[in-house]
Design a protein that fits this description.
heterodimer; A: alpha+beta; 6-stranded antiparallel sheet; 25 helices; 24 strands; about 50% helix; about 20% strand; B: alpha/beta; OB fold (Dihydrolipoamide Acetyltransferase, E2P); 5-stranded mixed barrel
Chain lengths: ~850, ~140
Amino acid sequence: MDTDFKGEHLLPGHLGQFFVILSFGAALFSTISYYFATTDKLNPSWQRLGRIGFYLNTVSVIGIGACLFYIIYSHLFEYHYAWEHSSKTLPVYYIISSYWEGQEGSFWLWTFWQAVLGNILVWRAKSWENPVLTVVMLSQTLLSSMLIGVTIFGERVGSSPFILLRDALDLKASTPIFNTRPELYKNYLTYITDGNGLNPLLQNYWMVIHPPTLFLGFASMVVPFAYAIAGLWQRKYKEWIQPALSYALFAVMILGTGIIMGSFWAYESLNFGGFWAWDPVENASVIPWLTLIGAVHVLIVYKNSGHAYFTATFLVLISFVLVLYASFLTRSGILGETSVHAFTDLGMFWHLVVDVVIFLGITIYLLVSRWKELPITKKDEETYSREFWMFVGAVFLGLSCFHLIIVTSIPVWNSMFGTKLAPPADPVKHYNIIQASFAVVVTLLTGFTQFLKYKKTDVTRFFITTLIYLVFAALITALVVYVTGVYRLHVVYILIMLGSVYSVLANAKILSEAFKGKIKLAGSAVAHIGFGLILIGALIAAGTSKVISENVSGEQYSEDFIKNKNDPRENVMMYRNQPVKIGKYTATYVGDSVAAPNHYFKVNYKMVDAAGKVTEDFTLMPNAQANRKMGLVSSPDTKHYLFSDIYTHVNMSNALTFEESEGKAADAHDEASDDSKYEPPVTHEVAPGDTIRFREGYIVLKSLKKDVKVQNIPLKGNDVSVGAELEIVSNGKTYTAEPVYMIKGGSAFDFARKVEEAGLKLRFSKIIPEKNKVEISVYQQPESQKKYIVMRAIQFPYINFFWAGTIIMVIGFLLAIFRRNKELKTV
Amino acid sequence: MKKSSILGIIVIAIAIAVIISTYSNTSTYGSFNDAKETQSELHIVGHLNKQKELFYDATKDANYFSFYMKDNKGEECKVVFTGTKPQDFERSEQIVLTGQMRGKEFHASKILMKCPSKYTQDKVEITEFKATQASI
């Protein structure tokens, strides 16, 4: 194109694109060099070349990130990525979040973490460096290729974050003026004053740390995979297990944390009213976690007993393939209409498929070609041995993962076999029941396996302890189930409660032994206790959560409601300052506060005891942004108690405008249009001391005050000004107002006063000397003009177990990693 | 028989059970015509008829929202949703409903809408364009 565009900054983009190509080239070069370093052990220069390629890749990955940051930070909207994912009003700390709103940024994040992990491996892996880094760099090559964005043979490969706006979009087609006056086209940038902005839902501090954690988890899954591949490839069948174990524990810990952070973000800032919805995108992140957690267990089994070698290897390998499959699911657009927040297709469908197929191919090839040499024991495990039941547990984790894959992949089956299946009509129930069944087995196993020993166990003693703990767990479960109301749920949930309590108890016993000296055991015990608590918390919170904003006032029932009583009526409408009964609370929408671009709705909750004393009083501030591109996007606010949460979410309101969210003040309206916002006035003739009634309360004329000053209007000679001191009581609250009547230069004026909170405008419209009375005009806002919100409030009991369990589990993983690292003596 | 073979059999049995239960739990994509003939819940893909009225008045009933949707076969039906009007509903390009017929109305228990504008913005806003035009 020959047009000479004005005002573009092309350098950062060119530099960025250069780094993109360099990172791909360097990764490919490093992969090849490390490959030959592995096969040709006598020539040390291969390893040197491999490292050079590796470091070049690291540098260019950082370079890409820096260029992208500069572009977004400087608001260079000539770049499509900056235009699409950021805006000038975006605070600096959310620039980080705009990195992962788009696919390109999240791919970059992945390559970044992989580069960091690669550096650790180059430093620590020693004799494993060559084969392991061959695999890691192969993965890095494929990831880098997703960012290339260059057209080869008519097909665009990858999608670059440095594509210019004018190349990404057909500006001429969307803005007709460029066709009628082509000379303006070269100045197109002057028309682009701001970017699209970041999705308001991502403007949350959790969104700054959740994606990096999650992607560190995904990225670190390549390490155990690489060790397993290296072990098979180099025929070091047993040696790879020990170093891979620490990395596998690390990956499981980080990915688990990332997933829960995501659910916390969903709970804090999304509107579906919960922390888990079995959305395909959520499932996609859990799938590899389940297989790898299974893998960790069988790796330990193999280490201690020599059994389950194939299962351990297979689970480690398949976990990484499933990470790639998960990214295919979420990024290829195949989930289409089954998921709310999957990405749309960026033209990388087949690219992502190739990625999965390559690593699946390597896995299958190595497993098949080395099959006969694998150290698989022919001996059967003892029934009363820890290894056998750990193995069973891993298998059940695999099965639960299998179920998730089958259901989440329904759109994939549809496109493969041409079927037209739809996901279950009530997916949450479907997943909950089936996954809970697996969880029952898994939790019971994490319990009684603790009482078994490797190789052989004393059977009588085992049965006695198991039973004692089971009885004890049953008693506690009965109590918990009764108190929390879980007994009203499906029986499988009661069983899962039993399993979790049992698991917590059994592992608490191990933990107490750990304190007595067997400190090695602490890691697994703590992690299992955490896992048990997560399940207990999730079960109670999700199972017994209650919508407390149910509409029971009877006022707003429509005919349809009477016809079918079963529909959930979860939203309640609240006019400003009109209290509404919500559960045991009296809630009032008391006002708004604005900190552009957020609009906060103040909702006050009060609990009053029988004696009329206020026992609790707090205000929640759910917020919303009116975004021109995305409409009203709102986030909930939650009151956290130790044992329950009150979650409040505004679905709709007439109190906020686009202008306000964009930081502009709403225009002052002229008098006529102002009056149109009120119902026709009602006039009252009153004397001091009289009371005027209106819909929501009453007004008392306290007294009339002479010679009141109105702003700076000077009064002369015969001029008169009288103020009416009014006391307004509306919905139990008292306000004052003083409308003024004035005769100046022979003509009458009056100055109305508004009481916004009560939706009133009051005029002192006349003095009637013959009756010794005055006339007050009362303007009331019609119901539809009054500020209102439509909100939903949900109570989540005991959700803190869920979060506390997560933290405890992470601590457990950390302890386990320290322990395994101590055992590790890499050569 | 070896324990591992027993375990293998159990695993296969559970895997089959999972597939069957999933398959029997899956719903189907259909049209309004299909919905009239069945009692069970199903998914209907279609688009909003923007000519007809969208009804939602929070002052009357905060939990009643109705609109007219055309399914992919072109058939139109009134849809009732118990809840608030989803934000930005007017701009949706495609809607997926889950629910069933009740009389002549389709009662949706879930609405999933795709606003492509949310994810892939493919147009420079003309309004912005006009606002700055005057300054030249």
